Every structure is written in C-alpha cells, then in structure tokens.
Amino acid sequence: MTIKIDQKANTPIYKQLITQIESAIRSGEAEVGAQLPSMNELADREKISRETVKKAYSILVKNGSLIPKQGKGYYVSGPTKGGHSKVLVIFDKFSAYKQVIFNSLDSVLEGKADITVVTHNQRPDLLE
Fold first, then answer.
1. Between β-strands 85-91 and 113-119, what pairing exists: parallel, antiparallel or unpaired?
2. Half-sphere exposure for 40 (CA within 13 Å, toward CB)
3. Cβ distance 21 to 1 under 8 Å?
C-alpha cells in the first residue's frame, strides 16, 4: 500500500493517513486481512510523529476499517455486518413524532444499514 504525505497541505497529516488507508481498502489495494505497517515503521518511512500514526490508526479502528491484534499490529477488517452502512440518528429527546421519523428512515433503508439512535437531552458535551 502506497502512502504519500503532503507536509505542505492544509489537511492534517492524520486525516491524510485516514483518507489514503480508507481509499486503499475501498479500491482493494489493501485486502481484507492485510497487515498495515507498524506505527514506528510508517512514522519513520513518512518522517512523521508516531503519535500522528497512532491517532489515525485509532480512528480507523473506531470506524471499523482496522482490527488491532495485541503484539501483532493492525489488520484490514472485513465488511461490517454483511457490508451494512452505519447510521447515527441524534434526537434531543424521543417522542411519538420522532418514532414516526425513525420508522420512516428504517423503512427507506430497508435493512441495508445498522441504525443507532442517541438522545442528547440538551447535553452539548455529548454532541461533541
């Protein structure tokens, strides 16, 4: 997998890493089960901070693109739940009206996505 960092770009380096790794996964350049370079190896090769690589890998693990294996490294994960998309719905509070909205969304998606509903109850810190 080829990763090229543009040190002069306005995009943060960790976001460049995420974008390039996700693109390689989508294109098939990085196959399911393939091991990514270690954090130290990638940091040394691209002359960037190990913490930057760690941040990018951590985000990719959270979004399901990578699987960490203790002492072995990071691997490209397979499709999540049959290749379903993930949808996050945020309501201030749940009501009968919002149930109608949710049901409509669910019927439009026809089981092609995993839907998570969160209520923030006027807590801006939760939204962040």
1. parallel
2. 2
3. yes
User: CA–CA separation, 40 vs 46, rounded Å?
Assistant: 10
pLDDT tens digits for range 99-114: 999 999 888 887 777 8
Distance, CA of 53 to CA of 48 (rounded, Å): 8
AA letter at 56: A
- Distance of alpha carbon 97 from the chain centroid: 31
Span 38-93, pLDDT tens digits: 999 999 999 999 999 999 999 999 988 999 998 899 999 865 444 557 888 888 88
3-state DSSP call for residue 87? strand
**For residue 52, which amino acid is it?**
T
- Rounded to two decimals, what is the model's pTM? 0.61
Say how many residues make up the chain: 128
CA 73 vs CA 35, 65, 95, 123: distances in Å: 7, 14, 45, 37
CA distance 17 to 3: 7
